[in-house]
Amino acid sequence: MAYRDEQLNEEKVFKDPVHRYVHVRDKVIWDLIGTPEFQRLRRIKQLGTSFFTFHGAEHSRFNHSLGVYEIIRRIVENFRGHADWNDEERLLCLSAALLHDLGHGPFSHSFEKVFNLDHEDYTRDIILGDTAVNRILQRVGDDFPQKVADVIGKTYANKLVISLISSQIDADRMDYLQRDAYFTGVSYGHFDMERILRVMRPLDDQVVIKASGMHAVEDYIMSRYQMYWQVYFHPVTRSSEVILSKILHRAMHLYKGDYQFTLEPHHFVSFFDENPSLEDYLKLDESVVMYYFQIWKDEKDPILSDLCNRFVNRHLFKYIEFNPNHQFGQWMELHKLFTEAGIDPDYYLEVDSSSDLPYDFYRPGEDEERLPIHLMMQNGDLKELSRQSEIVEAISGKKRTDHKLYYAADFIEGLSDDSEIKKRILEILEG
Amino acid sequence: MAYRDEQLNEEKVFKDPVHRYVHVRDKVIWDLIGTPEFQRLRRIKQLGTSFFTFHGAEHSRFNHSLGVYEIIRRIVENFRGHADWNDEERLLCLSAALLHDLGHGPFSHSFEKVFNLDHEDYTRDIILGDTAVNRILQRVGDDFPQKVADVIGKTYANKLVISLISSQIDADRMDYLQRDAYFTGVSYGHFDMERILRVMRPLDDQVVIKASGMHAVEDYIMSRYQMYWQVYFHPVTRSSEVILSKILHRAMHLYKGDYQFTLEPHHFVSFFDENPSLEDYLKLDESVVMYYFQIWKDEKDPILSDLCNRFVNRHLFKYIEFNPNHQFGQWMELHKLFTEAGIDPDYYLEVDSSSDLPYDFYRPGEDEERLPIHLMMQNGDLKELSRQSEIVEAISGKKRTDHKLYYAADFIEGLSDDSEIKKRILEILEG
Amino acid sequence: MAYRDEQLNEEKVFKDPVHRYVHVRDKVIWDLIGTPEFQRLRRIKQLGTSFFTFHGAEHSRFNHSLGVYEIIRRIVENFRGHADWNDEERLLCLSAALLHDLGHGPFSHSFEKVFNLDHEDYTRDIILGDTAVNRILQRVGDDFPQKVADVIGKTYANKLVISLISSQIDADRMDYLQRDAYFTGVSYGHFDMERILRVMRPLDDQVVIKASGMHAVEDYIMSRYQMYWQVYFHPVTRSSEVILSKILHRAMHLYKGDYQFTLEPHHFVSFFDENPSLEDYLKLDESVVMYYFQIWKDEKDPILSDLCNRFVNRHLFKYIEFNPNHQFGQWMELHKLFTEAGIDPDYYLEVDSSSDLPYDFYRPGEDEERLPIHLMMQNGDLKELSRQSEIVEAISGKKRTDHKLYYAADFIEGLSDDSEIKKRILEILEG
Amino acid sequence: MAYRDEQLNEEKVFKDPVHRYVHVRDKVIWDLIGTPEFQRLRRIKQLGTSFFTFHGAEHSRFNHSLGVYEIIRRIVENFRGHADWNDEERLLCLSAALLHDLGHGPFSHSFEKVFNLDHEDYTRDIILGDTAVNRILQRVGDDFPQKVADVIGKTYANKLVISLISSQIDADRMDYLQRDAYFTGVSYGHFDMERILRVMRPLDDQVVIKASGMHAVEDYIMSRYQMYWQVYFHPVTRSSEVILSKILHRAMHLYKGDYQFTLEPHHFVSFFDENPSLEDYLKLDESVVMYYFQIWKDEKDPILSDLCNRFVNRHLFKYIEFNPNHQFGQWMELHKLFTEAGIDPDYYLEVDSSSDLPYDFYRPGEDEERLPIHLMMQNGDLKELSRQSEIVEAISGKKRTDHKLYYAADFIEGLSDDSEIKKRILEILEG
């Protein structure tokens, strides 16, 4: 594995608000950052539509990707010389960290669901396909692109390398918690990363945490919990995501129904066909999406036009607590009432459910098993985190779900006050 | 002046990373924030192309406008009850603060120069024209939109109100210095705003600073100085602005020359004609611009295509120190050499000069006179800041200019090594 | 209740690293801060011996007392105008907040246990006795000192006032968590106090929290949990407290045994007699204690001299996990072995146990019932915090205890290597 | 120079609020920190009496010394491998950094002036004398203590090593500016130290700064300027220092006049004789001084008693602007009037002058020449900082002096209102 790892004449630095500086001294890393595929991440927001809720959350995935790279760089520097660490994996770790989100498209969450895509497939395609990224990775070695793809795809032989990039306490999570907290301005999301990095140890095929750092890890897990509920699952953000999904559904529906768009939606066609080529995929960033939505505001289809207007001008749906499992009758009735009122319930009424599992350990046989975080005790024994930490034990394995019903409140208000339908709808919604 | 100032049922807050919270309790302010014209500011970056230099600088003018509003809100709250303050100006101040940047277009700096526009005209047009903003302001009083426009246009009768929004130590500057420092992550841009707000006093037609706060003001002026040279005039940012201007020039040139664009540039047409209507102006935000640039990357005109590729993928011009006043001969020669080498110097060679005057006091008869900052001594006397502060005195009135020559270094490198032209160009550029 | 509340000509401010500024505009508050009794708090550290563990923790109770005052000032300002708030309680709240720790002596924790004292008694005595503090409080009204004492002593009629100063989410806790985090430099202890202050509401006889602020409260409770285990109960700090207690015990033992001190311990005599007068109490601050300890380093009694040397020069005891409930036999054996080795176990061997109950709600009939934190739901209902928060529910009512055995490891090492006693001691200690 | 540099089994860390963590892996450093001479620095405040002005400023020289050590550790780590750097100087640099303030006594500024001492002599004596520090340094090599003393005394052959510890941009200044800003809570004192450390380069016998880091250095110099005038020379702090000096003068005067102290001032005797031995010197820390001042509050000499009461209870002198060079007549008259009023002007009237030279470059022949800061241009040339920076040029070599007159305002107020003396004194003081 004699890789060619050319060094820059002089270390380059990026000023980063979260990690202060991002340091690059490998020419491969520098060149990867300069590729069109990586620069494209500047045009995709890290938190999708969250900026509607937290106006500071306008940062891009470019930002985050540099951050994950920097954390891995520091971890790998700490690992140098450890018996269980092979420093030849260094450049592989750095590359995988930098590129792990490369396949994200615009507003991934909604796009993936509506168009049945998986950004991980595109990450792999960009790394292995006919791209600037691939050509640069090839310079290191013929098998290097495949290795990078394997690490990101979690199939690489050295599980230790994988766990740095994706585990319950990986560089990805550590960066986004801090970064999203910084840009939104919330007071959650802070934990002592410097300490966590200092207590991480490579051990066989995993990264373990020295027991003396347990409280820093607890703090990290609590931060994660708070960020999920305070930021990522904020109901206002989910409202804008509901509208976004509805726009995509409507546009696809119109396209399949031979609707004549004023401007032919070239960029979207292969998405509507649920089979975008890599080239098409890379062309569709968030500025292109926003361009279309602004055009579609003036489309003649009233639903597409209305929904785009809502999204562009932040005229969102209202919401109430609503559990579809217990309130199925009400759901059916609302659906019927909306239809009767001339408000298409397929576009103006939606239940959204968000769930989070703050920490879990291995349970054989379940889907998506999660590897536990192991503490290394002073005597060298390993103990699973929730066995040692009461706080973590308390929330371990507890899935929490939040259900909300979203609806176009302004349309309801717009109904005649005499209308029985309006009265009944309000009765249900306002309980 | 019996304004209708309806209050919200419950104060609304925005989480803001710089001021922690932005507080809104006037319904007018809340409704202004919800207008399409104000929401559009989310699609215009506060620092234009600076994100190419500082990846964190992706924040929008929406962000900044809320910040200026919040600072004014705090100042006006402090002023309540002062003899020289009329609290009926409160809502006017808040509205003008919120809306002061409303007319900014995409990448304003370059667009204004190339298309001969002035964002202040558009701010005025939005406030006074047929817009949602105007309709909301009208609710306060028939003359209210005009008053807001007058404050922003600096023609309002009460100069005290104007000075809160635009002076050498106004809410605008205080917000952007802190905000831009926060998002770029630089360590400049910090000063004790809380202290400055505490020592501001309304006095006749100006805001004065209690002498005990002089050092906080010194710190603010030094922050401003550092931010200009470290962030706003960063040579890499200016490189991207040079390219941006060249794109706009080239596209206009092609348009005027009856070039057939693959995609008709509808959004740009009235800009190329240097007379965009308000409606056209509002439609052109930065996602639309980026959409066109990505389309233009594939245009058949090689210059437009190349320049757009450079901008989209951050493939910028290199630069050297170059003073056109002293090096005019070299400039002429380079121009000629570029032409001979087949590299159009109108698009690939440019001198850019940036100047800053960190602080100045009134000098009768000069263009753009600047009002001085006055300190109020313990005995009530007013003294101009630079008379009291050695630091400010040292930099007062000293204009500093930086000249740089930008050029497409890769094109020069691409010339044959035998070429005499190449040798001579490199001789001049590398001194 | 027509109190005399004279205002200062001009508001005074203290620069505070935690709350940025502490604001004073009541002359009574200003004068209280200037009393010898309050200034004395500068000579008593907020965290006792914690500076041995965290070198930044050198801040005094003076610091913290100003901070608690400032938090209450902000809360009371927010409460003004609420139906359930009587603004005539304002000055009482401020005074009680400022003075609540006034009776703390040097290294209170250890002193109180060894000499059987209660700092709350002294707080009361200072407020009601012949002191500068009392004379200033009297200026407000004859019954004012008594009211202040009642609030601090939790016997005041208006329970709402008491709950601001002492409850599970009071100004005292909010200040010390943030302040102690700031000075130690740990990354725990941060929570969004600004938000908590905004969601606090006076309701009948308690302070409730608007439900929308629940997560900020969760964060506060988790901070509290982390600070207890990471800072307050740090085993190194407890080691120095063990030594401190041993010094006091030894000195008292010598005094009672008619030992002739080289320097008569005037300041300690009434403490040894377990009945210090108020005057004696106020004279013994931490500089006086440290003076004596330095003198006692040179006393001829070897135990007193050795212990003082350990404390002054941070030559602490080592520790191991040790549960006296389960390891009583080992404890007995160690005691015996130490005695045989000529190392007095009464001074050189000690079990220390620390317990914390992070949050609890009311359980009738138990000692020291704790009032719950109530959330106010949107419909006005009150719900106890742990019913709404899974995180809090998880840790609610769970008392955690940590036991450690402290011993003079250097003395054991100093024993002859052949010694059977040494071997057996090490066997037990090193398990 | 084959030094014995034993490493610790495991790196030790101190949590530091300014540098986050202080790292120790050399056994010598660890052992030095544990010596009584170094632990004594915990009992000497970094900013002397500044805590009277900024209540947060209670941090000790122990704190600061660890900080300087940590900065040097980072610099030396960066230097490793540079052609002009000899890594064998590493341990010497670390030791000198840690110990550079070792000879400071209590409230050094005042003690040194009154008793005619120089803390640098004591630093040298501790390092070279019969101390724990000396014995540990000896373990490295017989000549090592002398080398450490030479570096601190600025006589060491390798000037590069000296300049790390004492120059216009050394580790000492970088630590105290940040640390004092942190503990006082002022917003000055911040600069981008991480950047400065990255642009420092060893070059022959000095440390130079890469030109690209010029603005970070400007920021550092401005921070220094602001800290001097906002914190270090704050008039309230100087008021307490005036009183402190007066106490020491009075006590010495009484001692020399055969006054019988209630408690024999053992710790002070050799200071009064202006010749304390090293042993005496080390015994007198700030807790001992505070102990005496509290005892002296009750001395029968009214001046000593009054002054100690003022110091202990922060009952300070008032001050006005007063230039003794221009107001000599008034000074003479005040002196006379105070005497006539029975207020001893030797103890209750004082002019204090503070001066600062923010930055200077070498001027041959002047006292206390200062080495300039050199920038290293891209082409390798060196330029003196003020030639490149307008800001620094503006303040370079400009000495600023502030004069204040301090007096016991309460004594003046206490004079009979009819008194002509009182009227005349107030006339002069209140201008």
UniProtKB/TrEMBL annotation, chains A, B, C, D:
GO terms for molecular function: dGTPase activity. GO terms for biological process: dGTP catabolic process. Residues 61-177 form the HD domain. It holds the Pfam family HD_assoc_2. It comes from the Bacteria. InterPro entries: dGTPase-like, HD/PDEase_dom, HD_assoc_2, HD_domain. This is HD domain-containing protein. It comes from Salirhabdus euzebyi.
